[in-house]
Amino acid sequence: MSSKSINPNLKHQPAQRPVSAASLITELQSPSHRRALGRAITLLESTQPEDRRLADELVNLALQHEPASPTFRLGISGTPGVGKSTFIEHFGLEVANAGHRLAVLAIDPSSSLSGGSILGDKTRMEELTRHPNVFIRPSPTGGHLGGVGAASRAAVLLCEVAGYDYIIVETVGVGQAEWQVHSMTDAFLLLAQPGAGDDLQGIKRGILELADLIAVNKTDRLPEAAKQTALELRRGLHLAPARPDGWTVSVLNISALTGKGLTNILEKLREYASKMEATGYFRTRRATQRVAWLKEHAEHRLLADFRKFMNREVRTTDEPGRILDEHSSLSNTSGVILAKFYQSKHIENKNSET
């Protein structure tokens, strides 16, 4: 059955690759920037060789772009069920109504079958999605660690090129690997829920010392439990190492559903941004993030090349199995395979030079 027999008005438009990175940058700064931004982020997430080359050119051009006004990048994390989507919808409206152009990068868990997003946060932020000054993009992690997607850093950059001055990055959840969102944002907001129990202990061990602001959500439903949770979090903060920026982390009680305390969060983040700008800490933090991005990009490319090499070896020669049979230890086998990988990359580089 054809698509037209299902819906005769349906007009299929296959995705088209942009003519050039320069033309896409121009589109990002035009009135039709929303569609261009969606295409650009899709390009960043692609694994096709042609798309990867174009994406690299796009990022290089974006790095040369200076935003017209200062931008603010906020990372948000919390345990599953804490109400991140509800919080972002209502807090995002506060941000947008305050005159900011807001971009939300909602990172969803990846399906193990398709590799796509499972949750689709955009469908759960209906009111925020309709706001004229808001852009929302759900993206899969693609199995990437750190609670963010492999293309998240570049996506933030492209949102700034498109004129968005307030960027929210929502991570998958909270855990020991969630440190990465801290290394790509200006501020890190941790959402906690009342009566978290063991989850609260996990937060203390994992990322409590990374948070710039903590908010205990759902105080409308469990006010007493929220007060107790906030007290435990404040005690945990006293055990954290001294901060290099001199900032004192606040723990606020809020209700994302009713909007209680959201204005306080916006004001507290403004205070934080103002102090960090005045001391030069923001510039230092972003400079450090650029180095982290370089390291992450190099590691990602190296791992992708190695996986490609291993898939080719297994598919064409079963060389890894033969080497494993010939060597007595796993470490020796790994050494032989790595040597073959480095040799293959050396040959590829020589061929590309000629």
UniProtKB/TrEMBL annotation:
Family: Belongs to the SIMIBI class G3E GTPase family. ArgK/MeaB subfamily.
Region annotation (Disordered) ranges: 1-20
UniProt keyword list: Hydrolase
Organism lineage string: Bacteria, Pseudomonadati, Bacteroidota, Saprospiria, Saprospirales
Recorded coiled-coil stretches: none
Domain of life: Bacteria
Pfam families per the UniProt record, alphabetical: MeaB
Matching CDD domains: MMAA-like
NCBIfam families: lao, PRK09435.1
EC number: 3.6.5.-
The keyword ATP-binding belongs to this UniProt entry's keyword annotation: no
Compositionally skewed regions (Polar residues) per UniProt: 1-10
GO molecular function term, any single one: GTPase activity
Matching SUPFAM superfamilies: P-loop containing nucleoside triphosphate hydrolases
A Gene Ontology term for the protein's cellular component: cytoplasm
EC primary class: hydrolase
Protein's recorded name: Methylmalonyl Co-A mutase-associated GTPase MeaB
InterPro entries cross-referenced by the UniProt entry: GTPase_ArgK, P-loop_NTPase
